[in-house]
Amino acid sequence: MNALRKIAAGSLAAVLACSMAACGSGNANSTDSASNTGKTVKVDEKSAKATSISDFGGMDGLVAAAEKEGALNVIALPHDWSNYGDVISGFKKKYPKIKINEQNPNASSKEEVDAGKTNKGTDAAPDVYDLGLAVASTSTDNFASYKVQAWDKIPDSVKDKDGKYYADYTGIMSIGWNADKYGDIKSINDLTDPKFAGTVALNGKPAEAGAAFNGYLMINQLAGGDIKNLQPGLDFFKKLKDCGNLTTVDVTDGTIDSGQTGVVMDWTYNQASYQKSLKAKGVNWKFKTFKNAQVVSYYNQAINVDAPHPAAARLWEEYLYSADAQNDWFKGGANPVLLDSMKKDGTVDQTTLKNAITIDGDPVSYTNEDSTRITTWLQDRTTGTRPSATDMTAVLTSGAHAKRAGSSAISFAAHRRELGTIAVSIPFFAYTACFLLAPTVIVIVGAFQSADGSFTVANFNKLFEANTIAAFGTSILVSVASAVIGAIVGALASYALVIGSKPNGLLRRMISAISSVLAQFGGVMLAFAFIATIGINGVGTMLIKQLTGYVVNPNWLSSLPGLITIYCYFQIPLMIIIFLPAVDSIRPQWREATESLGGNTFQYWTRVAGPILAPRFISAFLLLFASAFSAYATAAALFSQRSILVPLMIQGAMRNEMDPNQQGFAQVLAFAMIVVVAVVMMISHAVEKRAGRWQ
Predict the structure, then answer these.
(1) Per the structure, how many domains does the chain have?
(2) Does pTM top 0.70 for this prediction?
């Protein structure tokens, strides 16, 4: 779901803008690691410094320069978001000599800019951005100044005076609903009707997601509030909750299809997308805006100051502000920034105009400062609104009036303890069944199902394609490499601790405690920690540069050696936790016995300690492999533009809403991962059984 994926990140002001970034569902044309190599590129300085089409001698000169470059990198442009699919197709049709490389359709505004920084100087850097206002207005150092031919037609209020960024399109916040099921909705008070029980939804959380944030502002406006007075909106949502009509279910295409979210507050262009897809299923989805609550939020175009294809980037901007592209956005339910001027000069698509929902009167808008203040206000009042957990005090007693002694009493107590154990274990088994067994079964079954639910093995065809094999190869390489390094270093550290510190000494306790923490320190937080330390603008990077003059490669963290290094950060502590008890099990008497029989150190390790520790070492190595093989969040944060690992490829396939067969392919990939991990764990179990003889 496109709007739901506009999740906030960064500071509160940036949060809103990032959450409103043009990111959403994947598409079949997204680039993968094979096409995004990140090779150093030399750009034409004249094109890179061009501030208008006159610097190229006119349109013909610009087209010639762009075609010479032959490529254009775009990012965060899902095809079903504001009809970007047709916009991209229109550009390709008009300029067939320019190849469009589509990168990470799910990127937020901040991630777009970060991608430009990370890939600076390479052909993998985005050429152009589609950004929320907060990120655009605070990132101008990263943008090139360029004024399109339609510059004077863009209102001054929605563009940077130097041409660093300028508005392209906006949606209007609206209410959409299943008209067949619920009839008409004339006002927000209709939403309190019992027929809407458990079905009225914001698209996300107001303090986190852009669509939900602006949906709240719309409701607040309709409830009698304004940008300064936010309480009426909160009161209305409380009323919805009290009458049982508000649902906190995350809005997805599936929840809309099933009717679980029958009333949704979202942007008009997303509502138009729902309407189109649901019409094919026989559902009459309607949506409407309200004249006195037309909340709008423009997205903005910008050119990467370090664009690898600067002429193509400028040609793209010229195309976006042509009647063709503006009308394509218009057809997608968005209000293009040149709509008023197109009405005047007659270039607007009249058929679309007849049925379109356009801005009527003065829209509700807000500044970056307003967004920060409102977000803070919402966070302060929505945090902790969930019912607090009830204290669970299920205490199993032995029975105050039980008889003393006697076999019957003992037997009864034993049975009662067994029943108590079973009762306590039920939640665990229920949890395991729901969140381990059931998903596994669903994945396995889904791998053999087509989009219509029939049996098929066609989903496995892509499993043997070059990019899929490459992803598995890369995943195995990263897992093996990090597991080998983690196992060796962790084993040596464990041995050093055993022979060099007291069993209960301070050093031993500190290392064990730190390892326990670091072993869990993975995911996005670990990636961000490394970015903040040795990223392009990291503290360590800056310090190294100041002290030695050496410039750390900005792409190192997003390379395989960088990923392996980061994985070792939690692999080594995990190895210490696993392997330290095994080293502790080695008895000093065994070494003394070896020496008393005339053996030396080599014989001790090859014939006594080695055979004892080897099964545990192998078992630990396999566990490290499985840990790295299934890891996702860290790699996703570092490789947001590339599906170089199997988990990232699964994510890309699951989010692809353009090709229904991609869902089956994602389940095939997951099935293959299950098989690999299952084999690894079976080997680990067999090795552990061998090690058990020494317990």
Answers:
(1) 4
(2) no
Amino acid at 222: L
Output the CA torsion sign for 643, 649, 655, 661: positive
Over residues 541-554, mean pLDDT: 80
Instruction: Looking at 363-437, list the stretches that DSSP marks H as alpha helix, in order from N- to C-terminal side.
Output: 368-382, 407-432
Reference 145, options 162, 128, 126; nearest CA is: 162
Please indicate, yes or no, whether residues 94 and 193 belong to a single structural domain of this protein.
no
Check whether residue 505 and residue 628 sit in a common domain: yes
| CATH code assigned at 565 | 1.10.3720.10
Q: What is the dihedral of CA 560, 563, 564, 568, to 10 degrees?
A: 170
* Residue indicated by tokens 């320019």: 98
For residue 134, pLDDT beyond 90: no
Together in a domain, 177 and 164 = no
Can you give the residue range of the structural domain that contains 428? Answer: 407-447
Residues 6 or more apart whose Cβ sits within 8 Å of residue 572: 485, 486, 489, 490, 493, 518
Among candidate residues 210, 169, 209, 174, the one with its CA nearest the CA of residue 298 = 169
Q: Are strands 99-103 and 71-75 parallel, antiparallel or unpaired?
A: parallel
Render pLDDT for 314-351 as a digit per residue (tens, 0 to 9).
999 999 999 999 999 999 889 999 999 999 999 999 99
Same domain, 303 and 283: no
DSSP state of 364: B
**Among 299, 322, 300, 318, CA closest to 310:** 318
DSSP notation for 531-587: HHHHSTT-HHHHHHHHHH-PPPPTTSTTSHHHHHHHHHHHHHHHHHHHHHHHHHTS-
